[in-house]
Amino acid sequence: MSVPKASDVLATELRERILSGEFAEGTPLPPERELVTQTRMSRTTVREALRILEVQGLIRIRAGRAGGAFVQQPDEESVASSVEMLIRGRRLRLASVHQTREAIEPTCARLAALQRSDADLRAIEAANDAVSNSDDLESFLRANVDWHVAVAAAGRNEILTGMMMALSRAIYTATKTDGFVNDEVRSIAVRAHRSVTRAIRERDPDAAERRMARHVHSYATAALEVEDRTTVTLSEGE
What we know:
The chain is mainly α. Helix content is 68%, strand content 3%. It is built from ten helices and two strands; from the N terminus they run H-H-H-E-E-H-H-H-H-H-H-H. A two-stranded antiparallel sheet has the order 1-2. Strand 1 (59-62) and strand 2 form a beta hairpin. The longest helix has 22 residues, at 94-115. The protein is elongated. The model is unreliable at 227-235 (pLDDT under 50).
């Protein structure tokens, strides 16, 4: 039989109380000394349980006289961190990352066309302007990530947004090479982004989904062939 550690048991109990809403966001957990008294566990066990919750993004630890463990609700970053750890920890193939992206990102574009606000559209357009104006590999890749995440965020689906944050980071790392990202790739990416953005601006979900599917598929194909070629051909969309 596998007996769970006391710290895992305590972390699980506190986690459920946080997720159930018993501890509202921003409120402090009982002080460490009080938790030791209530649970009859050692201070080391209580601290380990709190560290587990901190890693999971459910509390934040503040130092000082007014410090303590304060509750925070999971957000898109929590999803992104979990997926990112899965990708890195299991050393998943880049092909798997691209397949996942092709499966969900066209839906992100569709939702963006249906749900976006004017502020969302400005964020999407600003990110694409940054892609267009980037003068080095680093700035291009970061702006590219910002654009894809902005599209996902405009769809108002926190799970998809978190997934896109993690997938974009993984692809950013894998394609951080001048052998793949050249002037042609940048130019085509800008035009493809503008095509998708136009559909989102016009609230045309079918066009947004179709154009994004074409863009991410061609990008994935090119990225997976990066080691075997010297030039890149990507679809520009419509």
